[in-house]
Amino acid sequence: MPEGHTIHRLARSLAELVGHRVRAASPQGRFPADAVDGARVEDVDAVGKHLLIDTAAGRTVHVHLGMRGKWLRFSPVTGAPLRQVRLRLATPDVAWDLIAPSRCELLTLGDRSALVGRLGPDPLRPDAEAAEAARRLRSFRGPVGAALLDQGVIAGVGNVFRAEALHACRIAPTRAARDPSEADAGRLWAVLTRMMTRAVEDGRIVTVDAEDRLAVPEDRARRVYKQDACRDCGTPVVTAEVGGRTSYSCPLCQPS
Q1: In what helix (H) or strand (E) does residue 162 lie, and over which residues does it extend?
Q2: What is the pLDDT of residue 115?
Q3: Which residues are part of the catalytic machinery?
Q4: Contacts of 29 (CB under 8 A, 6+ apart)
Q5: Where do the structural domains in the chain lie, given as residue ranges?
Q6: Can you say whether the dihedral through the CA atoms of 83, 34, 55, 60 is positive or negative?
Q7: CB 173 within 8 A of CB 163
Q8: CA-CA distance, 177 to 160, in Å (whole number)?
Q9: For residue range 178-230, what is the model confidence (pLDDT) as tens digits?
Q10: Which of 249, 50, 66 is nearest to 164 (CA)?
């Protein structure tokens, strides 16, 4: 499933629709395209793993890509969208086609506010508060590895950022979320912010040190995530199910 940096990159790209009246279509027939057809796009925003396209019609197109969803961009626009397209948003110059999302729906302003209100602070948003993130993290009943995957605690974090940020902070994913001090929780937030911000710029998650991060092979781009051995100390990486997902950690760097 795409993590938060992917959705923020998408929001940047889809922002080219802002200020334009878009033609909307749903060849698949599973989205009420008529409700936004001809509407002006006022903003494209990302909160955690959620993409929000606000229109002047007072409706927001909410998209969650899930495991298989993706947006395809076409410019110039050379033909009609394929039948499997859930939603096309197009201007005369460009078309964005959405395929196989886990969710694509219209929200009212109230629905939009409720959705955002259920999410925790997003490390990639300037309005996020580190203190609130630390409070939610340390209030979580369960392991810290599960807390980081709970979008109501911190929004946008997935399995890769969980593994790499906890490793960078020397925190075992199985430790109780209440155990790290406020200072440790603050450091974890700072590490997530740095890693995720860099991933937005790079278009991929690279946590190892390298002069040219984009040249690092994908299977060697992380320190513990899906690695046989810790890239820092060489200790074999251990796995466990935490929060319903496989966690990766170094038992030497991250003692439990």
Answers
A1: helix 159-168
A2: 98
A3: 2-3, 49, 245
A4: none
A5: 4-117, 130-249
A6: negative
A7: yes
A8: 18
A9: 999 999 999 999 999 999 999 999 999 999 999 898 899 999 999 999 999 99
A10: 249
Domain 130-249 has CATH 1.10.8.50: yes
- Residue where the block lists tokens 């334009």: 20
Report field, pTM of the whole predicted structure over 0.70: yes
From the list 67, 63, 57, 51, the residue with the least C-alpha distance to 2 is 67
Tens digit of each residue's pLDDT (9 = 90 or more) over 91-131: 999 999 999 999 999 999 999 999 999 999 999 999 999 99
CATH topology of domain 4-117: N-terminal domain of MutM-like DNA repair proteins (3.20.190)
Distance of CA 79 to the CA centre of its chain: 31
Q: What are the structure tokens assigned to 232, written together? A: 């820092």
| Amino acid in position 11 | A
Q: Are 229 and 236 in contact (CB under 8 A)?
A: yes
Instruction: For residue 103, give both structure tokens.
Output: 């969710």
pLDDT digits (tens, 9 = 90+) for 53-77: 999 989 999 999 999 999 999 999 9
Nearest to 42 by CA among 31, 54, 58: 54
